[in-house]
Write a structure and sequence with these properties.
- Two copies of one chain form a homodimer.
- Chain A is about 65% helix and about 5% strand.
- The N and C termini of chain A lie far apart (about 65 Å).
- The relative contact order of chain A is 0.12.
- At the A-B interface, helix 1, helix 2, strand 1 and strand 3 of A face helix 1, helix 2, strand 1 and strand 3 of B.
- The complex binds zinc ion (2 copies).
């Protein structure tokens, strides 16, 4: 039976994925400094094995044969999703994939040395090479998938996401934010004039911050029997669903950055830990994609973790772990701080979408050939001026050189961040519609309602529908910017 | 060219070995408790891939073809060693290997629950099943390799080791020890009557012990850029040559157990770190086998670490890290304690070989059918009485049920421990012959001579000769018990 062959095939692939995932975590958390070269060799070797196995020609035959076998609904979905994944993996010639990977790696390496110096001129040719290949790639994917080129790129990260639906949503959000950001900043100024911002600084030993972080992870539902928290230079959520590895980094003079980072990664971790166990080795049992994943991390970080109700619950824990008894009115202004800035990863939830929309627009222009790399700094600066009223023209490291995505060849990824933020708001709105007292539950440290809803509507759905399908089934409607806009107005507009 | 194909083949295998090795370390040091089942699945999947790739029929063709190609000496050795490894891997039918692995795993699981209860009767049938399969295995290996059955088993762990040479050496050592142990104990008693044993107890925080351990690791040559020290329930040396992972376990009331454990594992680690880089992915570039590996760990633990000269160097470090200023005459009696006991892993260097020789004799009897499992407890007890004058007949968990080796199906492994101890003494004797002031160097914290000699004569030889060949080339003679006996007489006989 071909379905059984596919099942064995998926088990073999998952063993390699498990290894690659844990090796990645180990590299960031435990590897000796001199071990990097052999680690890279080993991971390249395993990735090659994975790619050869995943794209083997007989897999296509098994998929075709399995489609004619008597399968239940879940099995049919599993085969369909495996086919989607197989098509996406095999739609580029092997030598093109290798050429693009090498070009992307070289460009990323160059970027790592050029960025700190702001050496745009030195880096530009590498990015031009990448953009050229991405244009080729998008054309090939588009042809095979029957999609527009940019949609074909997004399809890798979020199956079903289309510019046709995203562009008007982003346009509405952008129009709102360009107007709203100055208002929110003015309101913030007025509040601070009345009650000056009190620094949340002190001396917070790492061990105490870690204990606080773990207490909050457990409180919001993270299963410490199937996961852990450690330290790395760049926080991430890695590992495997049965052993989710969260990391953070600590500074001993502030506790909020590490704690909010932990809450963010915990959101990713909850999704992974609660995927359906039966289908764990099939693509249909894995997390859907980048924007739904980000909706889960942002749900915990922003909808829960920056919600005043959460701090009613959390402040006593902060006090008992760190010995600091902050007043709510001193803490919330930090949690809700709005600030115009050039750097996306440092942005707050109000200004962040403008950073994303700028990139979304520019990468479509680059892909379509309406914009060339040489003209990127000016184009970037023009939009940065229009959207946020600031300029990075004199420091490209704070402009188009700030992110790893383009240097490494990842185009079509950026929208996921803001789509995730909007989906999180839409999910929260759905929950609070049927549970009007949700904030009281959260203030009491009871996360049952939000977790039960997300388990049933997001986590257990895994990849059993496209990104828009999962959102529609969960919330009863398509992506609707009204919820995120209402959320920002409530939190920052009064 | 077939040699190039074999080279690529070895690179692919080393990637899987790297993954399996790091996954093993991660399991012992970082994995979440609930992650074990999926980890086992993943490692079984990768092991299967490894076995299929390593035993693929075309590898035999490439080896045959490579032997006709123009190769330099190192390449010829590499092909010969790969062939040896290929033959050992393919000499059993695949379904027998799987059957034996499953039987061994079930028996080991049963052993883990039966041992604490001393339930020999409950465990015996499982061991009988294992012994039956090991007899079959040995017969098949013997047939194909043209060796005696027990030699064919040892060949997996130490290529070239033969009962023909080991049995008389062990007989000589046994005769010496049965006579020497009571003498050494009497001498110890007399010394203690003059100067009572002073407990080395105190409160030693883990972080301070770790800092002391790392200082000693570095002192004896461990490269912290290519390795690290962490914690696990059972100390081990794992990882890969470019990233050697040592572990230990600490108790806060004593520092000596952890420190001596660290020195032991550091010996293993030095060997791994200093293998020849060019051949790292070929079997010829890997550590030779269990007894040479153990000779390196015991060289550092016993020849260096229990040498009074070492403590001239180490005591000030103990004082500065732990704040305890021990007198040499109070410390050495602990480092050199001799004690009759039932448990091999707790034994000192004087009594340890008798535990090994007892097992060496019994497992040959079991293999040859001269002894059946049902008669094992009595046979064990008889030898334990003859060799050490103690009995475990009432507590089989302290007798034939104490080790994991037999329950898991590893026969022919035990001799490696004592062969390693003897080889370490023989290596030390060779060095001190040409460097009579070696103890002064060590007392001064200068490990250059011992490390240079071992690098040239052991570490860089990797698997480019059989176990006896490497020893002969390094020391100028075959395994000679006189060195180990002289070492024990000097350290414990006066
Ligand atoms: Zn995230
Ligand atoms: Zn050892």
């Amino acid at each position: 039976m071909s379905f059984a062959k596919l099942d064995a095939h998926c088990r073999s692939l998952i063993a390699l994925e498990h290894a690659l995932s844990i090796l990645g975590v180990d590299e960031a958390t435990a590897m000796a400094p001199g071990g990097g070269e052999q680690r890279a060799e080993a991971m390249a070797g395993l990735s090659g094995m994975y790619h050869r196995q995943a794209t083997a020609p007989q897999v296509r035959d098994w998929i075709e044969a399995a489609k004619t076998e008597t399968l239940d609904q879940a099995q049919q979905t599993a085969v369909a999703e495996l086919e989607r994944s197989y098509v996406n993996l095999t739609c580029l010639p092997a030598d093109f994939v290798e050429h693009k990977m090498r070009t992307g790696m070289r460009s990323e390496q160059l970027w790592r040395t050029a960025r700190p110096k702001g050496d745009w001129v030195g880096f530009r040719p590498a990015l031009e090479g990448v953009v050229e290949l991405v244009r080729e790639e998008a054309a090939m994917r588009a042809e095979l998938l029957g999609l527009a080129p940019y949609d074909a790129l997004m399809e890798q990260f979020d199956p079903g996401n289309r510019t046709e639906t995203i562009t008007p949503v982003f346009a509405e959000l952008k129009a709102f934010l360009v107007d709203f950001v100055p208002k929110a900043l003015k309101i913030q100024d007025e509040k601070r004039a009345k009650r000056p911002l009190k620094p949340l600084s002190g001396i917070y030993p790492v061990e105490k911050q870690k204990a606080l972080g773990i207490a909050m992870m457990k409180a919001v539902g993270f299963d410490m029997n199937h996961g852990s928290l450690s330290v790395s230079d760049h926080p991430f959520c890695g590992g495997v669903p049965t052993d989710v590895r969260l990391t953070t980094r600590y500074r001993t003079d502030e506790f909020l950055p590490a704690l909010m980072g932990i809450l963010h990664e915990t959101g990713h971790g909850l999704y992974e830990q609660n995927l359906p166990k039966d289908w764990a080795h099939w693509p249909s049992g894995k997390a859907r994609g980048m924007s739904i994943h980000e909706s889960q991390s942002l749900f915990v970080e922003k909808q829960i973790g920056r919600n005043p109700a959460f701090w009613t619950f959390a402040l006593p824990h902060v006090a008992s772990h760190l010995g600091e008894d902050w007043a709510m009115d001193d803490l919330l202004p930090h949690v809700h701080q709005v600030k115009r800035g050039l750097i996306r990863v440092d942005a707050d939830e109000v200004t962040y979408p403008l950073h994303v929309i700028l990139r979304y627009e520019l990468e479509q222009d680059l892909l379509a050939g309406r914009l060339e790399v040489k003209d990127l700094p000016e184009a970037w600066d023009a939009k940065m001026g229009d959207y946020l009223g600031i300029s990075s023209l004199d420091a490209p490291q704070n402009g188009p050189m700030q992110d790893v995505h383009w240097p490494s060849g990842a185009f079509g990824y950026f929208p996921s961040y803001t789509l995730g933020a909007m989906m999180a708001a839409q999910q929260w709105a759905t929950i609070s519609r049927s549970h009007p007292d949700i904030n009281e539950e959260i203030a009491a440290g009871d996360f049952t309602t939000v977790n039960t809803w997300r388990r049933d509507n997001i986590w257990l759905k895994a990849s059993m529908g496209s990104t828009p399908e999962i959102l529609r089934q969960a919330t009863g409607e398509d992506l609707n910017p009204a919820y995120f806009i209402a959320h920002l107005k409530t939190r920052y507009g009064a």
